[in-house]
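So, is this right?
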Amino acid sequence: MNSSRLETDDDFMRLALGLAEQGRGSVEPNPMVGCVIVRDNQVIGEGYHQRFGGPHAEVHALRSAGDARDATAYVTLEPCCHHGKTPPCSDALISAGVKRVVVAMADPFEKVDGGGLTQLQNAGIETRVGVLEQESRELNAAYLKRLQTGRPFTIAKWAMTVDGRIATSTGQSQWISNEASRADVHQLRGRVDAIAVGMGTVIADDPMLTARPAGVRTATRVVFCANRLPSPRSRLIQSAKDIPVLLIVSPNIEQTDVAELEQLGASVYRCASDNSVEMIHQALDFMGSQSMTNIMIEGGGELMASFLEANAIDQYDVYVGAKVFGGRNALGPVAGDGFASVAEAAELQLASLQRLGDHDVKLVYRKAQRN
């Protein structure tokens, strides 16, 4: 239990949000949820949603508390009120005899959407909603986006030098970042549903796109194929029967060429258009239909540019290595034609800044919210 002095609803909700974060990568497509049970300003129970299909945060917290009569439950998302893979959490709170429930935000999922709060209120339980709501929304941004749009949350990731290069003028890129940064990338790979690259990256690097060591999720390796396909001898295709590979192909790709790769284990989604922006929108719709919540774009520059043009990047994870390459022909992370004016540029908000190792920095930006 947390032993620091906690006194306000904000204090206890902040503790619940920290618990919820521990479920990242294990609970999707469900949301991350944390719960704290408090009596007389003392934490008597803690819990979080630990894995998809398992007990929810409230159940874990109530078990931890043992006796929750007349206590206050702090929950980062409205308790569910429907039978899914587990019984309703609203019923569990009512049966436990809690007298007050504080919720960070209502759950917009259609089977909840205020129903859990109404059930608690009808049982005579005092409720408060909106405590650290913005923090809760940021925590579950991917869940909320998929509910609203049907599409996964998209993270663009790259490592660059202080002067914004991803390779030298001769094409060398290993290593821009340090070991701590590379380990952090592998942790991210182990928490997402898919890792996407373009054919240029496949040809240049012959990547595996796996997490080392393996994470809580095994990401589907996604390749956008407008005019070319990976070689049957590529490491992606050779490992496709063991680790999923999804090829996003345009109408320019002949079915006879795709068939061999399908026999080797690759899955194929055929887009109706060869326009790069339309391909991205169609691919995101498809991946959302496959219950994917988070995807990461790892390159190259042309694919990054297409996602940017499609307004389809929700978050940027940028690793800045303590090096300067220089060179007018040295590549940057986003290619394409770019924006013609500053006014057109994508506007971002800094979400976090982290030092990795002795010299590297990780910057996380989110798409700016328009008022």
